[in-house]
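re: ur question from earlier - yeah i can do the single chain one, its not a big deal. heres the input i used so u can compare w yours
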Amino acid sequence: MSEIESFFKSAFSVDNVIFGFDGNELKILLIHRGAAPFKGKWALPGDLVYPNEDLDTAAERVLEQLTGLRDVYLEQVKAFGAVNRHPLGRVITIAYYSLIKISDYIVTPASFAQSARWHSVSEVGELAFDHNEILNTCLKRLKLKVRMAPVGFELLPPKFTLTELQQMYEAILSEKLDKRNFRKKILSMNLLLDLNEIQEGVAHRPAKLYQFDQQNYEQFVAEGFSFGL
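and the output i got, formated as tokens:
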């Protein structure tokens, strides 16, 4: 093999970090590997990229093949290229991430994924390959993003309370937020519409219901903001 040929002996893979929100907790979708290497270990849904396939297409294909999820918006985060990150040879992986509402999707594992299950982000153990590093990197990106762009339109019900909105942010950021400051900040942004309605059928004092102002929401998504919580 010539020196120049050795540069073409690396493989590429994609790994999908799918965060899910269930109304209370931030979770991560993992597969139980049924094939070597790391057979029997939990891992991110990932696999090798075909030689004739671009990266974005590969990420979508792999996610659907292993978990059954499709039509999920995936954002590319970072490449991970440590020389020995894969036991079978040099594999450079590209990480993608997404944040979805768990109840909107049905997980159907297939291929070498023996099973696929949502895990609490706070309780993830040791994963295959360098997937803990990939997960932590994407989690940092998510926490940064929620401070720079609104989230919740796809994660909350059409009508929600300020408490539910705050609980969503706390779940993603893994920290408690001051109730007064949060409400003052969120209401000052003109991001919500007061529906002049209150909760029904609750044991506690009914709270006011809101919905997102779609036009302002989309403008914030496009332009970004600094949500100093």
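Strands lie at 11-21, 26-33, 42-43, 46-48, 75-80, 91-101, 113-120, 192-198, 208-212. not sure if urs matches, ping me
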